[in-house]
């Protein structure tokens, strides 16, 4: 707001004040109030994500390895970092194998278009459940049943671009940097499912080299996936997606979502 004129002589009569006011320059008008432009999904972000999606969905099969850091609650106002490493083998439309070892345990997963199998390699216990559909359908079913979020899911989806950019998503370019001697472009996305950051090769392939996901909610816990190797033309041995129970492995049932915690608290 413009500053109001201050009288220089408070003892002057009202007529003199009026004369001074009439001779004074008019007070400047207030600057117009402008509304900042609404956040959008910037065109260069959209274009890079589309290139990435085309690269991933055009590969009939691929393998990848990754390291992961995941925040977990550890008491009042504190979180800790849990680390891990894993590998994924995928063959579209409905074949998947994954192995993960972390501070939270070690397990392997198989999906062959007919059944989903999970093996706890430390406890030597496995579970099998009938399941059909593509890789995305299977992983969504796993998320729903186990009550977990899989940050890698968008990269394995039928349409990675659509899953990363649902209605209401905004995104911007952060900058260019280097990951393991590879030049990458860093993007940030905000959407209904949470906050994403993704580092894509600054090349036509736009392969993702790193992903950060912050879950919605008050705790805002972060998971980082650091992709150490991609192979878009793998030679997969026969039986890659077939599960053979290890010796002396025990079979268990998959527990419905929420039931695992209830049973674990039952004597």
Could you explain how this protein is built, in words?
The chain has a single domain, classed as Clam (outer membrane lipoprotein receptor (LolB), chain A), CATH 2.50.20.10. The protein has six helices and twelve strands. The chain has helices at residues 14-23, 43-58, 135-146, 153-156, 160-164, 259-264, and strands at residues 61-73, 79-91, 95-102, 105-111, 115-120, 125-130, 170-179, 182-191, 194-201, 208-214, 222-231, 250-252. Strands 7-8-9-10-11-1-2-3-4-5-6-12 form a twelve-stranded mixed beta sheet, with helices on one face. Mean pLDDT is 82; it is low at 1-29 and 256-267. InterPro entries: DUF2092, LolA/LolB/LppX.
In short:
The protein has 267 residues and is an alpha+beta fold. The protein has 6 helices and 12 strands. It has a single domain (43-258), classed as Lipoprotein localisation LolA/LolB/LppX (outer membrane lipoprotein receptor (LolB), chain A), CATH 2.50.20.
Defining key terms:
267 residues; alpha+beta; outer membrane lipoprotein receptor (LolB), chain A; 12-stranded mixed sheet; disordered N terminus
Secondary-structure element sequence?
HHEEEEEEHHHEEEEEEH
CATH class: Mainly Beta
Determine Rg (CA atoms, Å).
28 Å
The biggest beta sheet is recorded as:
12 strands, mixed
For the record, give the distance between the C-alpha atoms at the N and C termini, rounded to a whole number: 69 Å
Number of helices: 6
Work out the count of structural domains: 1
Organism: Sediminicoccus rosea
Protein name: DUF2092 domain-containing protein
Pfam family, one: DUF2092
Keywords: Signal
